[in-house]
Design goal:
The structure is a single chain. With 147 residues, the protein is of the alpha+beta class. The protein has one domain (6-139). 22% of the residues lie in helices and 30% in strands. The chain is built from 3 helices and 6 strands, in the order E-E-H-E-E-E-E-H-H.
């Protein structure tokens, strides 16, 4: 579950061992609470809020209101070169919205899209991490907490 306002950029996996992360790997990126004024969070904020979600009460930038607290992703199927990604937009650990996104591995693009660009970028980051772990299982064997 990552913060719904977090736009992941490069992976931070090279910075050391990390516990299981919602997007597969920890990411650097920007906060898009205000899309006209992106903000680059420091490492602590990335670790405790952006990458983990549910920052409504701990992040001063998180807006008041009724939106999602986090986005959650999982691989529902990996068959015939298509990844079916299940997503949930959550608030207070309950689903506000859910659905599936299909991703063509051979074309490196989504077959269908959601209207939320932040959700789409997080899904893409999740897929990047999934494919990286799938193609390099030895990295997972060295650090079994990263799944």
């Amino acid at each position: 579950m990552a913060c719904p306002y977090f736009y992941p950029g490069e992976t931070l996996a090279a910075r050391g061992k990390h516990p299981r992360m919602p997007l597969g790997d920890p990411y650097a990126g920007v906060c898009r609470v205000d899309p006209l004024r992106e903000w680059r969070p420091d490492d602590d904020t990335l670790a405790r809020a952006c990458n983990l979600g549910y920052a409504r009460k701990t992040c001063p930038r998180f807006p008041k209101g009724s939106g999602a607290d986090a986005f959650r992703f999982s691989v529902a199927a990996d068959e015939d070169g298509v990844l079916k990604i299940f997503f949930v937009c959550e608030r207070n650990h309950s689903a506000l919205e859910h659905g599936t996104l299909d991703f063509s591995v051979s074309h490196s693009k989504f077959v269908n899209r959601h209207t939320n660009d932040l959700l789409m970028r997080q899904a893409e980051a999740y897929i990047e991490s999934y494919l990286r772990r799938k193609s390099h299982p030895e990295a997972l064997a060295r650090n079994p907490h990263r799944r």
